[in-house]
Amino acid sequence: MAKQQTQQFKEDAVRYYYDHSDLGVKGCASNLGIGYSTLTKWLKIARENNGDVPTRGSGNYSSDIEKENARLRRELRDAKDALDVLKKAINILGK
């Protein structure tokens, strides 16, 4: 549901710019409450995809394998961080 709303907002923002192009990108972005660079990026993507702005937010994975890979990468990063802390503690306590 939220993904559909995000997609709809992006498409509406692009449409708003085309309807109010006299305001410029900065003016439209300000009126929509989004950043200039965000709207610029959506406009570029829309031009490249014939008006369609694909949505891909954080936590949205295209497959279960990608989701599992992301989880394992986070787990590995956390384990490495813990190992670094332990190594530093050993060096401090060993002196």
UniProtKB/TrEMBL annotation:
<dbReference type="InterPro" id="IPR002514">
    <property type="entry name" value="Transposase_8"/>
</dbReference>
<keyword id="KW-0175">Coiled coil</keyword>
<protein>
    <recommendedName>
        <fullName>Transposase</fullName>
    </recommendedName>
</protein>
<dbReference type="InterPro" id="IPR009057">
    <property type="entry name" value="Homeodomain-like_sf"/>
</dbReference>
<dbReference type="Pfam" id="PF01527">
    <property type="entry name" value="HTH_Tnp_1"/>
</dbReference>
<feature type="coiled-coil region">
    <location>
        <begin position="62"/>
        <end position="89"/>
    </location>
</feature>
